[in-house]
Amino acid sequence: xxELRKLVLVIIAGIMGVWPVSAQTKAEADSAYAxxxxxxxxxxxxxxxxxxxxxxxxxxxxxxxxxxxxxxxAILNYERALLLEPGSSDIRFNLELxxxxxxxxxxxxxxxxxxxxxxxxxxxxGMDGWALVGVVAFALLCVLVLLYLFANKVxxxxxxxxxxxxxxxxxxxxxxxxxxxxxxxxxxxxAVVMDSSVVVKSTPDASGTDLFVLHEGTRVxxxxxxxxxxKEIRLADGKVGWMPAKAMEVI
Length: 251
Hints:
Layout: H1 2-34, H2 38-49, H3 55-67, H4 71-84, H5 89-99, H6 113-122, H7 127-150, H8 154-186, E1 190-193, E2 197-201, E3 210-215, E4 219-224, E5 230-234, E6 240-244, E7 248-250
Helix pairs in contact: 1-2, 2-3, 3-4, 4-5, 7-8
């Protein structure tokens, strides 16, 4: 029992020692940003991210890079923030603002309206949000099933039956959406071009045929990650080619 008590005290002491430092560091980074000391803010936010991913910190770091006209790092951090908080209108707005300053203007391939609608539904919130919706929907499903089974009035039985069906659909969809968000977070295929310009080749070799040129800040999707020095990428407009791994950074 004494050993357990000592262990609890050590854990509490560790928590008490770590969290104030983190909070203070964020406060200092925020203060530096507000004062226009963007390099200091970048250092502070970058240090915080070593402790773990956080959408707000990525967003603030992106803003700091944007203020110093470093568009590629700004876009990279906005993209990372959006992965964690896909429903944030502020992150999306700033990301689009940063993209408007890039050289490459890529028109995405057209897709069926229901695919666009489905993707929009998935991105309404992050993995944790959809997981919570799923839990709440399942709880309501149980309540409505009980209502259907034990209600005396026909109207209440109907309400319980159809309500339970609706909650079943919501629970299933919420879990599917949460799984999709989980996949996006753990299997990251998106990347941002960090070099000022890079020539995309037809083969994973410097002697390959030149296909097109990309510039910093452009988002690509990695479709072949099997090689160390070269990655096969795909653009939103469907163009495919190979580019050096060192010229990009994974979101």
